[in-house]
Amino acid sequence: MAAVELGGHAFGRFCRFGRTDSAVRRRRDRICNKESRVRLRWAGSDGRILFGLFSGGVPPLAFTEIKFQDVLSVARQSQSTDGELDFTCELCLIGLASYFEAFCKDCFAAIINICPEIAETFASRRETTIAVTDLLDVKTNTAEKLGFLIAEKLDFGTAKAINSLYGDLLKVSPFSTDEMKRYSKFIDDRNLIVHHGSVVTLRYEKSPSGTKYRDRVHQDSIVINKRDVVGWARFLFTIAKKIAKSSKEGITQFAAKRDISLDRVRKEAIDVLDASGLFPEIANSPSSDPQ
Predict the structure, then answer these.
(1) What is the distance between the alpha carbons of residues 268 and 38, in angstroms, rounded to a whole number?
(2) E-strand spans in the chain?
(3) 35 in a domain, yes or no?
(4) Which domain does 191 fall in, by range?
(5) How confident is the model at residue 83 (pLDDT cuts 50, 70, 90)?
(6) Total domain count, the chain
(7) Spatial separation of the C-alpha atoms in residues 30 and 23, rounded to whole Å
(8) How many CB atoms lie within 10 A of CB 44?
(9) Are 237 and 101 within 8 A, CB to CB?
(10) Structure confidence by residue, pLDDT tens digits, 12-23
(11) Is residue 79 domain-resident?
């Protein structure tokens, strides 16, 4: 299959994933053909341009869905029982945080790669500089890499930062007030695991997440289980879908308002920004509160 050459290992995996599972293969084909209303070409110059607009050569939401499914697969292998420290699920939570932040960055970059004129609006709202050496390193197709150069220098680590960046780019706010609070709890848990080995600190105890650990600071550890991993995956993917959908609508409206003519390749790229559906467990399940 020529897909490996087009998008590197990431896109190759997107195309090959579940090749022995006819149900997954049908869902994959539905993403590429029906839901997106376009056929993603596996070969040809247009295909190389299209997938070059995306990090890893894959539309960001679809790539994140695959990564999340992998995380859930690992979590299910845990042998820990409820109430026990579960190091596997702790690592899965860290993975979800990493992949979601990468999605926010990759989708942001794709928006600018697809429609570089949007970068002008973003730069008018916050200082944006690119080193000459970075431009020289890109060498070719600078306009199609502009999003990567801008996004990789930005911080997408909090809900407030994500709302601010997407607000300056497309005047959209991915997180509602309640969703910001839930994401803050998620990040609190992630940071406690990463920086303190999951042992409750005084700062964590004073947060809304740590009230039940009073009098046990520096003694108890938070416990992450499979239900937590599934719940957080669904919540994060719900936000990711919202970002992808609002990005798709935002680019279309921006281009129409500015009377920007987008070629066929970029229209197809916009069309697949919100492509998902490989794994209904994640994509179609309601977001649930982790324990």
Answers:
(1) 7
(2) none
(3) no
(4) 59-273
(5) confident
(6) 1
(7) 11
(8) 11
(9) no
(10) 444 443 333 455
(11) yes
| Alpha-carbon gap, residue 185 to 187, rounded angstroms | 5
**How far is the C-alpha of 270 from the C-alpha of 281, rounded, in Å?**
25
Predicted structure pTM score: 0.80
CB-based contacts of 92, cutoff 8 Å, min separation 6: 71, 72, 74, 75, 224, 229
Burial of 264 (0-12, 13-18, 19+ CB in 10 A): exposed
Question: Given a cut of 80, is residue 9 above it in pLDDT?
Answer: no
CB 207 within 8 A of CB 200: no
Contacts of 150 (CB under 8 A, 6+ apart): 108, 109, 112, 119, 122, 128, 130
The CA distance from 209 to 235, in Å, is 17
Q: Quick check: helix, strand or coil at residue 114? A: helix
Question: Which among 18, 92, 93 is positioned nearest to 62, based on CA atoms?
Answer: 18
pLDDT in tens, 119-146: 988 988 887 766 666 666 666 666 678 8
The pLDDT of residue 140 is 63
Measured CA to CA, the distance from residue 210 to residue 213 in angstroms comes to 5
The answer to whether position 163 is within a domain reads: yes
245 vs 13, residue with greater confidence: 245
- Tens of pLDDT, residue by residue over 93-115, are 999 999 999 999 999 999 999 99
Residue 6 lies in a domain: no
Q: Please tell me the distance from the alpha carbon of residue 143 to that of residue 115, in angstroms, as a whole number.
A: 9
Per-residue pLDDT at 10 = 43
CB 85 within 8 A of CB 221: yes
Q: How far is CA 188 from CA 84, 254, 262, 280, in A?
A: 20, 36, 42, 28
Per-residue pLDDT tens over the stretch 194-210: 999 999 998 988 887 77
Whether 291 contacts 227, CB under 8 Å: yes
d(CA 37, CA 141): 27
Phi–psi pair at 221, nearest 5 degrees: -120, 150
